[in-house]
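Q: Entry one of two.
A:
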Amino acid sequence: MSRQIVSIVGGKDATAASTYESINPARTGEVVARVGLADAETFAAACRTARDAQREWAKVPAPVRGRVIASIGRLVEANTERLARLVTEEIGKPYAEALGEVREIVDTCDFFLGEGRRLYGQTVPSEMPDKNLFTFRNPVGVAAVVTAGNFPVAVPSWYLVPALLCGNAVVWKPAEYAAASAHALFRLFTAAGLPDGVLNVVFAGGADTFGGLERALDEGTVQKVGFTGSSEVGRKIGELTGRHLQSACLELGGKNPMVIMPDAELDLAVEGALFSGFGTAGQRCTSLGTVIVHESVHDAFVERFARAVGAARIGDPTEDVLAGPLLDRKFADRYEEYLTWIEPHHKVVTGATGRITKDNPRGGFDGGDGLYYHPVVVDGVRPGDRLFMEETFGPIVGVTSFSTMDEALDLANLPGYGLSSSIYTTNPQHAFRFREGISAGMVSVNNSTSGAEAHLPFGGNGKSGNGSRQSGMWVLDQFTRWQAMNWDHSGRLQKAQMDVADIVPDLDFRLA
């Protein structure tokens, strides 16, 4: 029996304007949840509710807010298996990966629970006597957070946990196709004791979300927007917030390169490429886009990579598999378009392409009615090819070759994204030269392009984002604003840069 889910604003169910069915992509005939979608006005109203609730939440001492975050972590930890199973059921993520995703929420809470006691300001010396200078971190106000569904619970926690800790209220719009997972996470957060209205969840389509956000920004009820999703939509969000003199926290797509140097350990490189290219069926923002392999080891790498992909298990995400189905029908449709970008000069080294069916099976697996697709490795991609230049959200990886490090860096940076990157080498000089030359916000050495830790900055540049960072202490700058205060107790007006003691040096002095 499917779940019935609606938006929750101020602790109360909101009226739905339409209904969306969230399906199990491993068994497309199974409806996981029937989701009541809100309209633009409901989103805007949620932001008004959050504004009113935020004023009281900000008065709660930060260490006490930290204890709420600690409770969220413990509640998520106690519900790990159930939440992970729901993620697997709703988006087809392999259960082992879903468990890791839930663990990431706990890690995030464990990091930030102490930040309630470390929202430090500073005391700063003044240039004048009898005057003290201070700095403080203040909450921004209301954060509107829009997240994708490929990481339906971990990525939202990167926004929600620090935003709430810092004294903000949140209106969260999850992906419709991951609504059941989002609703479960919302319930865990509110069970920790959050007052009504401090965290609100609104399920809505893209147009209504954008319209509601535009209305809220016009009304002045939103002071920060966080968005995880495509570069195309991220641009629109950035333009909208820019008109209101705000800077959104944008975590967008990637065309993440992996450079294989001639001194690389090829078996290790293949393992990293397999996981980052085809884990979660290639549906991560940090998934591998193009392998840029030195010409001297190109053939050996491609042969091993193709063999590893051929041996990898694709199938039921509740079992021990590398990848399950694509997230939703719309992603399957989009992926089939990406397959049309394969050109005559390309060479598919992994065999079959397209959806896994009885007529197009993968070994003994026919895919049933699930959205399962063959993993594809395309050798011979060239600069300018769509497969080389554009993000392909799904199980397809391109391969090209290079001769010099400068050429490898040029190829890695050419698509204009800048999220994640990787280099396989046993030479430290190569590793540091790559780090200096790559435009990505994240660099891995002898590791895959995927994988984040809760205390390390996460984010990208270029088409991958606007330089904002999530996770760790760095995200505090997204959800707080610095305030400077000066306190003059001299009893007279002292003018900065004017009433300053002047000590005159003898600059003509020379040693005899």
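Q: Entry two of two.
A:
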Amino acid sequence: MSSSSSSISSKRNVEFQPENPCYCGLPSRVRTSRTKDNPGKKFRLCPNSMQFVTFFKNEGPKCKFWEWLEPETPENEVNSGKDKKESCNLTLKVSILENEISICKMKMEQENLVVRQEFEKLKWKLFTHKVVMIVLFLLFVFKK
């Protein structure tokens, strides 16, 4: 763990990480560096570290736990580039699939309209056939 000078963000921006305790078992706190060398870089430290010990107490820091949250390495930078490219590719694929789904829905609606129109025609034919059958039946019955 390297130590580097970094300033502490205001208390309202404190992020606790109970799942990542420091050496003394307390939940570590996540802060953001405001230094010229590491602006915006996040780090974890113990609440008993030097940054949290008040200057009014004559005590030194009880715990010296401190670490960068995400160390910068060339490998991470390469991976983040690959991740961004992969993310863009996935976004493009999702857009294409959404477009294809929209086209399929539109085709289904058109086919549904055609089917409903054909069904209405068949219903009308059935009705006319029933009427013809009734008329023929009545003509047959009254001719006798």
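A: Comment on entry two: The beta strands are 15-21, 27-32, 42-45, 66-68. Confidence is low (pLDDT under 50) at residues 1-12.
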